[in-house]
Structures are given as C-alpha cells and as structure tokens.
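Ligand: 1,3-dihydroxyacetonephosphate. Inputs:
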Amino acid sequence: MRLPSELRAAEYPLLADRILRFKQQRNAIILVHNYQLPEVQDIADVLGDSLGLSQHAARTDADVIVFCGVHFMAETAAVLCPDKIVLLPEPESGCPMADMITPPQLEALKAAHPGVPVITYVNSSAEIKAMSDYCCTSANAVRVLQAVDADEVLFVPDRWLASYAARFTDKKVHWHEGFCPTHHRILPEHIERLKHDHPDAVVVCHPECRADVVDLADAVESTTGICSFVGRSDAQEFIIATEVGLIYRLERENPGKRFYCPSYVAVCPNMKMNTLENVLSALETLAPRITVPDDIARRAHRAIDRMLELV
Ligand code: 13P
Ligand code: SF4
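Predicted complex:
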C-alpha cells in the first residue's frame, strides 16, 4: 500500500542518498516506528514498535538518534540516552493519547488511591513517567500488570490497553479514561463485514482497540508482535486491526499473504508528519533536538528500568 506521498516518489532515491551520506558523517542511526510513511520505513536502520526501538536506542553506539515516530518515543530515547543527540524530524508530531493525562490529573488519581502503584503506558510524557512506579508497552502490559506485587493498581492513560491487560489478572485495575483516537475509529462492524467477505482470514488486533473489537480478534499484539505473528502463521489472509501504516511492512515481509484493513480512516496523522525532507534537514542541522530535564529523566528512567526488571 502506498500513501499520497508517492506523488513525489521520483525524488526519493536522491533524498535517500543524501540522508545516507549525512547519516555516516554524523554517526547517526535512524529508528523508525512501524506506522511511518513507506518511504521513511525504507530508510530505517531499525524498524519496530515502541519497546523494540527504545531498547535499540539504549544500546546503540551512534552519537545521533533520528527518531521517526511521535514525540513521546523520541523523549523516551532521550531519557534512556542522555548523552546522545536525539532528533525528532517533525517536533509537532505528538500523540493525542499521551496528552490525555496531565500531571495534575495523575496527582489527583494518586491522591484518591494512596499507596496504589501506578503503571504508565509508554505513550505518555516523560513528566508522567517520572510520577509513575512502572512503565509498560503494548508488548508487555499483560506481563507487567501480572508481575506487579499489589492487589490494586492505577493504569494510565489508555483505558483499552488497561481493560485488555485486566482480563489476565484478578487485580483491581483503576484506569484513566484515555484512548487512541485512531484505534477508536475501528469498529466491530468493520471486522464483522471483513470476516463475512473473507471467512478464512485471521483477525489480529492492537490492544489499543476498543474491547468489542478485541473480543473479535484471534490474536492481540503490539505492532511488531503483529508482524511476528503473521510471519509465523500458516494462514494466507489477515484482517489487521490497527493503524493502516503497518500494512506496508506486512506486505513487504510476507509476499503472497493478503491483508485487509477494517477501516481506512484508522490513520494517525501525527505518525505521517516525518518525511524524507525533514529527516534530511534534521541530519543537516542537528535539530529539532528533544531533551528532558535531568530530574525528570532520572525518575522516568527508573520507571522504565522497573518495567524491564519485572518482565
Ligand atoms: P507499539 O508499541 O505496539 O508499536 O504501539 C505504539 C503506538 O503508538 C500504537 O498506537
Ligand atoms: Fe498515539 Fe494512537 Fe497515534 Fe499511536 S496511533 S501515536 S497511540 S494517536
């Protein structure tokens, strides 16, 4: 699947060449999230989900990290690699779900549930992570929730990831009412219609989907988890309930298998803001740079480390 940017496709080899040259000069690495534009996926050194990309950031010996994703992802890389230059080609590419919980809101939640540990989805600001006990990602939320030594937890900001993880534990989970507007557009009737038209297709969904969509899925996985599941599966047809950008990687890695999108309006506009042009400009100018104040970074790092110790 190609997105509208293909209109400029003729310029891509030229831009990709210049990006490669600057990347070498800067000793840079390009980390790309699975929802990015196809041409940006094509220049990735590493393509992955939030967890995989942050782990890669933590162990790279590059001096510069160009993070093609949204703001919280680059911020997480800056927390994990305080000595490196972390660039986000389009600084306005935020995550609306991450913005749904503010420090005063989390303060109020904690005050209402004193002593209850806080698990925070990585789709959140560094400030929110710094106020949390544990982080989790879509790839490990179930395991983190199971492993936390408490009968009750607070889970922010995604109510759907929280309610999905809560299916696998007896713990009382108090979740915040945040959600991903993109995944929210995928409805059960979209899945039902595709299942009717393609009865052999396997339904794989991201845990940010609504509970009534998750109920219809054969597997629930992070974005990279979806790619691994499809790669291992003997099935030939898949209904992929997540942001449409993942289809490009799935088609490239699985020639012959067929993929159906429940809703072509399940697009995350922020994920499409990084382009070859602004990646090149970031490498040329070493801007826009993402930094996190030391004190916040230290406390956010602790919540991320505690996640990694648990799972
Ligand atoms: P993944 O960690 O599964 O890639 O998800 C990140 C995200 O923002 C999904 O909307
Ligand atoms: Fe945020 Fe949803 Fe976009 Fe992921 S797809 S970055 S959760 S708005």
